[in-house]
Amino acid sequence: MYYAQKFLSLQSDYDIRSMTKGQKIILIKRHPMGSSYLAICLFGFIFSVRPLDSSEYNHERIHAAQQKELLYLPFFLWYGIEWFVLYIKYRDGKKAYFHIRFEKEAYRHQDDLDYLKKRKHFHYV
Ligand SMILES: [Zn+2]
Q1: Which of 25, 72, 92, 113 sits between 20 and 30 A of 61, alpha carbons compared?
Q2: Ligand 1: distance of its center to the CA of 15 in Å?
């Protein structure tokens, strides 16, 4: 659902801008969910503190597809409960985040820009 800051791309603003043409992003001033997160996808809308590179944008679009197929509210419930269970297991919020099934799917496939065209529904189950 969010994008960790340690994955911030090192590309210049100019490069990012040329890569982000046509992206539908709502730019926000404050980081969502604390400073280590860059972007968040809520109900199909992508909010971000800066333009995203193509992989970052793809990551959020994968979350948009997950949310849509779970009809939104169940996605957020599942996401939150899974994070909490993983947090109990690992005692580490960031580690829990990276082990959420929705994040695993999004991180695994974010560099494949054609992924959403061939993705099967409920791929994370
Ligand atoms: Zn994510």
Answers
A1: 92
A2: 22
